[in-house]
């Protein structure tokens, strides 16, 4: 009995410790191509990270916040899956990962990057080594090492190039097909960390946002600033351009979802206050939500809401009729007393 009790206490303490770790870190998940993403927050730490491929086309990572497409964040215990699956591949991507992004044109290609974790491109159908590993830029004019902090990653359409934005307000373009592993183009914007980035519909420029609510469009062909957008009042956390229309959706810590026009005439189209601090967003593929077919109703069937409304009004009318005789009696008594006062020879106390 004593040995069984000891084993039970050990299992209970282990389960409680794993639960505390999962609640302390938080979870983040998003499924690419869907219309209902599951989103959340995570905490960065110094634990070595890992990237696992599953036959359910979900990717798992531990050791940092990964709000990219088809990504799940975990630490410590296992995340339960809706159906049993077999692990196909496990990759060590390093600590401090801030972003993981899947190539829309080649779903088996995934890019990762983070703080002191340079950009890497992985082939989930190939080996356990990255197919491309970026090299840090050369030392600055004081011959000091330039720190690494990739905050967001995007694959450029119809090419193998990638673009990143950093926590040191830089936008960089990498070309894995080039002999050099350093950026082939670099631009800077502002003085604050860049936190989010999205490609414009043409793919020739990107829109970046920083921790002070500033938005800017950067040309990827010449590396110059095209235009700045106004309206945000807090750190930008999510950006996405419409795939065919010149519209930009943005959200952040000021709790407001905004839609900007990014072509002339530029400006703010819509603004919605959503109460909570926002981390990310996703544009739906549905063109018009009003065109959704409604369930057919039976001809003689009255909707439940109308029935409840009719019953409510009927109860109010019944209550009013019950009170009406008492009101008429009190008014009649008052009129009788007034007539008695007006009669000659009547006395009033």
Describe the 3D structure.
The chain is of the alpha+beta class. Helices cover 18% and strands 31% of the residues. The protein has a domain of 152 residues: 7 Propeller (Methylamine Dehydrogenase, Chain H). Strands 1-4-3-2-5 form a 5-stranded mixed β-sheet, with no helix packed on it. Strands 6-7-8-9 form a 4-stranded antiparallel β-sheet, with no helix packed on it. It has a 4-stranded antiparallel β-sheet with strand order 10-11-12-13, with no helix packed on it. A hairpin with a 5-residue loop joins strand 18 and strand 19. About 19% of the residues have low confidence.
Which stretches of 5+ consecutive residues score pLDDT under 50?
Answer: 14-50, 52-82
Give me the CATH superfamily of the domain at 134-285.
YVTN repeat-like/Quinoprotein amine dehydrogenase
The number of distinct β-strands equals 21
Gross morphology is elongated
Question: What's the main sheet like?
Answer: 5 strands, mixed
Could you tell me the strand content as a percent range? 25-35%
CATH architecture of the domain at 134-285: 7 Propeller
Instruction: Give helix % range.
Output: 10-25%
Alpha-carbon Rg, integer: 32 Å
Q: Spell the H/E element sequence.
A: HEEEEEEEEEEEEEEEEEEEEEH
Strand line-up of the largest beta sheet: 1-4-3-2-5
- Which fold name corresponds to the CATH topology of the domain at 134-285? Methylamine Dehydrogenase, Chain H
Alpha carbon gap, first and last residue: 94 Å
Task: Assign the structural class, choosing from mainly alpha, mainly beta, alpha/beta, alpha+beta, or little secondary structure.
Answer: alpha+beta
Mean pLDDT: 75
